[in-house]
Amino acid sequence: MSDNGNKRIEAFIVFAIVVAVAAFLSGWLTFSVQFERKKEPKVEKPKAASLQTLHIKEQERKQLHDHYHLGVEDKNLDVWADKSHCIVCHSPYPHGRIKQAQAIINLHTEFLACNSCHLKLEAGEEIQFAWLNPSGAHPTGKPYGIQMDPKTGYFLQTDNHISKLAPQRKINGAWQTMQTEAGVDKASKYMEEKGRLTAEQKKAVEDDLHKGTELKEFVKCSQCHSMQSVLNFQELGFDAARTNQLQRMEMGGMLTNYDTFYFPDLFEKKFK
C-alpha cells in the first residue's frame, strides 16, 4: 500500500475517533449532567413576604369573612370596625347562607345597623328608626344615598359615608336607639380566647352577646321596600325621588319570589 493510502486511512481513523469522542461528550453533557442536577438538594426559597403580601394578609385579618373585592378605601368599614360587637365576631359582610342573595344583603350593612334586621321584638312592640353614628364620629353632611342629583341621576355627594339606620324602642316613655357598642370589649376578648374555651363556655358567651338578638325570623325585603314600609323615609331625610326608588325596588321581589334564575344562552358558546 502506498504512503498516500496509509495517510488516508490514518486520517479517517483520527476523524472517526474525534467524531466518537465528540458524540460521547455530547451525550454525557446532555443526559448525565441533567440527571446530576435532578439529584441536587432543593434550595428553599426565602420566606420574606413582600409589602403587597403583608398588606393582603392585614386585609384578611381585618375582614375575616369578607368575600368581596374593594376597589377603593371603604371609610365605613374602618370607622365601624370596633364600634359593634356584631362586626367584631361576624365581620362587616357576614351573610353567606343564601348564595343567591348574599351580595345584596351584605350591601345593606353599609347603611343599616345589624339590629335593624336582627332586633328581637316583644309581642305588639312598636319601633322606629333613626340615624346612628359611631362614638367619636361627627359627620356634618347628610347620609350618603338619601338624595338624588336631578342633573346626573346619581346620589348627591356628601362627606357622610358612615351614618347607619338603627332601630329605636320606647323605654320608660322615651325613644332610645339600640346600639351594640357596649359589648365590643367582651366580643374582642371572646375572639382572642375562643380557641381555648370549651363548647359550654363558648355557648355561654355567645348567648350573652346575642341577648335581644333575633336569629331566626328575619326582616323580609317587602317590609322596607314597599308603600307600607316600616321605615318613614320622609322623616329620615330621603327625598321624593329616592323614596320612590326604595319603595318600588324590584330587587326585593326577585329575591323573595324566585328560587331559580333563568338567563338567555346568548353567550353560552362564547364563555364555554
Give me the secondary-structure topology.
Layout: H1 3-38, H2 51-62, H3 75-80, H4 85-90, H5 102-107, H6 115-118, E1 127-132, E2 164-171, E3 174-177, H7 184-193, H8 199-209, H9 221-224, H10 240-247, H11 251-257
Antiparallel strand pairs: 1-2, 2-3
The main sheet orders its strands as 1-2-3
Radius of gyration: 34 Å
Main sheet attributes: strand count, strand direction, barrel closure: 3 strands, antiparallel
Helix content class: 40-55%
What is the helix/strand order?
A: HHHHHHEEEHHHHH
Q: How much beta, percentage-wise?
A: 5-15%
Mean pLDDT: 77
Tally of separate helices: 11
Cα distance spanning the termini: 78 Å
Describe the overall structure.
The chain has 11 helices and 3 strands; from the N terminus they run ααααααβββααααα. The chain has one domain. The chain is elongated. The protein starts with a helix and ends in a 15-residue tail after the last helix. The longest helix is centred in the first third of the chain and has 36 residues. The chain is mainly α and 272 residues long. A 3-stranded antiparallel beta sheet has the order 1-2-3, with no helix packed on it. Helices cover 40% and strands 7% of the residues.
